[in-house]
Amino acid sequence: MQEMVKQAPRSKWIEGRQAMQAPEDVQTMLKLASLGWGAKRISRELGCSRNTVRSYLRQGGWQPYRSPQRPGRLTPYSEWLTERFRQHRGNCDVVRQELEREHGVTVSLRTVERAVAHLRREVLAQTAATVRFETPPGHQLQIDFGTVRVPIDDEQIKVHLFVATLGYSRRTYVAMFLHERQSAWLQGLEGAFRHFGGTTREVLIDNARALVVNGHQN
Known about the structure:
Elements: H1 2-7, E1 13-14, E2 17-18, H2 23-34, H3 39-46, H4 50-59, H5 78-87, H6 92-103, H7 109-115, H8 117-129, E3 140-152, E4 155-166, E5 172-177, H9 182-196, E6 202-204
Parallel strand pairs: 3-6
Antiparallel strand pairs: 1-2, 3-4, 4-5
């Protein structure tokens, strides 16, 4: 037993704190503890603190050191980031600009991308699981509006995007407006028909208030 204790090197101290014990040191602690030695006696013999001995005995052996996980700089804005990421359809640069303007937080584009990486994977998974709704050629045109902010003369301007997609070929037409009033819908629809070179048998919309005269539910 004395030979085993003599072979165990004394603990070293680095910059005012005790260095991590080597695996063989910890094995010695466990062996001595199994023989009935207390933490105080083990610490005195091995030249380390009692708390260190107790910690390794609780762990049941040597384990590599793991630095504690620190919350990211954008952690307090998780809900806000989620809402804006989905609103801007994954445009992280727009999210970054709004983060600086609304919260005074200046970070790199890469920082924002890392913070929403799990959301991007979620969007990709949802896209892969979505069954595309197709129709016969010339049968249906699907139209909708989306929004995005674009820099114009050092100012972020909210732009409304009219998007028209043919149900069969998935060809798309996009037009920009400053509003979503009825005139924008009609101009966008006319532009889409001109772009595609004709009309479809039906137009599918998502109950746009600007185009609905009398809404009702079945």
